[in-house]
Amino acid sequence: MSIPLVDLKAQYATIKNELDTAIHHILDNTAFIMGKPVSDFEAKFGAYTQAKHAIGVSSGTDALLIAMQAIGLQADDEVITTAHTFIATVEPMMQLGLKPVFVDIDPVTYNIDVSKIAAAITEKTKAIVPVHLYGQAANMTAIAEIAAKHKLHILEDAAQAHGSRWNNQAVGTHSLATTFSFYPGKNLGAAGDAGGIITNDDAVAEAARLLLNHGSETKYRHVKIGYTSRLDALQAAVLTVKLKYIEKWTEQRRKNAAYYDELMAEIPNVVAPKSDKQARHVYHLYVVRVPRDREAVLQYLHDKGIGAGIHYPIPLHLQPALAGLGYKEGDFPHTEAAAQQIISLPMFPELTKSQMEEVAQTLHEAISVTA
Ligand SMILES: *Cc1c(COP(=O)(O)O)cnc(C)c1O
């Protein structure tokens, strides 16, 4: 029996009728751009995230690109973030001429090590971009304190963290803007690319809405050079259906993680993920650490049909596309060690106990065989 990293078919089966109806409704109306499906989703997502404004965008990457401009970042500004994330966190910075400045991660949570942020701040620093990696909120109390002290903006990359909380406060509470991805495999996923921005700031919301639609204030009057980065009505309709289930799915992910934790405790040389007591971890990914022979263990899992992955194998400071930033191997030891030792195990709401048992048993075998 093979077990995928994410099983989108299992999810579709549970909501097929509702989803098919919503999609056909859009097709029947042939109103594909903007309009009620998009504004309905935005209102509901805003309510879910407790934000004053929620803005649909064409992807999580474009959400970051637009949010960075909407909060006023400009060429040569420095932005502090981590190298242990998907490239999309910094791609928009490069396109806008901003300078990403990396700090190392906390080796337990894999999020930014807040004790190392202050040392990375210079006169040019304008913002901190925490990434709530794998679905676990970064330490927003500490980040908000540092940002207030140094007058920096916070832009949260919550692409993996729908419904995540820090100290019982939703992600997005502490920042000028927060972005989400609705890529199909994310916790709230569309049937294609989609993303969103939330903010409590009216001016940021207005600037973002202008930018994502050709900088048009009214039809054919363009006050800014913008983008074609609107959320599709079809995707909005899909997301509106799925949003009804996000809390149920999140609780299923958390239950699955708790069961995995029990199973991992029995396996030598495997470190289960740790959830900070102050965070509500929504387990976009369940990432274990295998300190020895990670490649052989991963190969064994693949050979047995377990869809394990690595998120992410090459830290951003060592990516060829970012060589111009001038970082080198050894700059971020915790980030580099994580990249060499992590394995993401299958994780999705519909995962069954027996599937998790098979994953754990296969991992146990892999560890014994490679020891
Ligand atoms: C998925 C992801 C993005 C990009 O989102 P897309 O919708 O794929 O463009 C950005 N940051 C992180 C951390 C992600 O996981």
Write a concise keyword list for the protein shown above.
371 residues; alpha/beta; Aspartate Aminotransferase, domain 2; Aspartate Aminotransferase, domain 1; 2 domains; seven-stranded mixed β-sheet; 38% helix; globular; binds pyridoxal-5'-phosphate
Summarize this entry quickly.
This protein has 371 residues and is an alpha/beta fold. Helix content is 38%, strand content 14%.
Describe this structure in words.
The protein has eleven helices and 14 strands. 38% of the residues lie in helices and 14% in strands. It is of the alpha/beta class and 371 residues long. α1 (8-29) packs across α7 (233-243), α2 (36-49) runs parallel beside α7 (233-243) and α9 packs across α11 (353-370). It has two domains: 8-103 and 110-243, 3-Layer(aba) Sandwich (Aspartate Aminotransferase, domain 2); 246-370, Aspartate Aminotransferase, domain 1, CATH 3.90.1150.10. The longest helix is centred in the N-terminal third of the chain and has 22 residues, at 8-29. The protein has helices spanning 8-29, 36-49, 60-70, 91-95, 140-150, 202-212, 233-243, 246-264, 294-303, 333-341, 353-370; strands at 53-57, 78-82, 99-103, 125-128, 153-157, 165-166, 169-170, 177-181, 195-199, 216-218, 221-222, 279-280, 286-289, 342-345. The strands form four sheets. Strands 1-9-8-5-4-2-3 form a seven-stranded mixed β-sheet, sandwiched between helices. Bound molecules: pyridoxal-5'-phosphate. Pyridoxal-5'-phosphate binds next to α3.
